[in-house]
Design brief:
The chain is an all-alpha fold. The protein has five helices and no strands. The chain is 75% helix and 0% strand.
Length: 142
Amino acid sequence: MWGIIIALVSGALMSLQGVFNTEVTKQTSIWVSAGWVQLTAFIMCIVMWLFSGREPIAGILAVKPWYMLLGGIMGALITYTVIKSMGTLGPAQAALIIVVAQIIVAYGIEVFGLFGVEKVGFEWKKILGAVVAIAGIIIFKR
């Protein structure tokens, strides 16, 4: 149950952040907005680190495989693409498409056991669920 609550909060925060970032972009520029997001996220991480376990920062150098450290670059690109999609499509349609893309990619990662994720068996009903979600986007758009 706790995982569901956290996921719901995460989804709500992503939608709010997308709207806020899109408005900041209108008043500044996309890279100023994205940079502000990353800078304030970094500051928040430092504050949270100070008030929590304080694991050694040097541990980041031991992360294997190295490409797992690309999350920050992906974070900047996510911020950019969310701002652009919400600015062009609107918050609701952008969020729908983003979530469906997340579901499809995440399922592919699980089915193929990529990036150290435990491999799961392929199920047609999950593909059908993604197709229904895509149909929902089409209906929502019209």
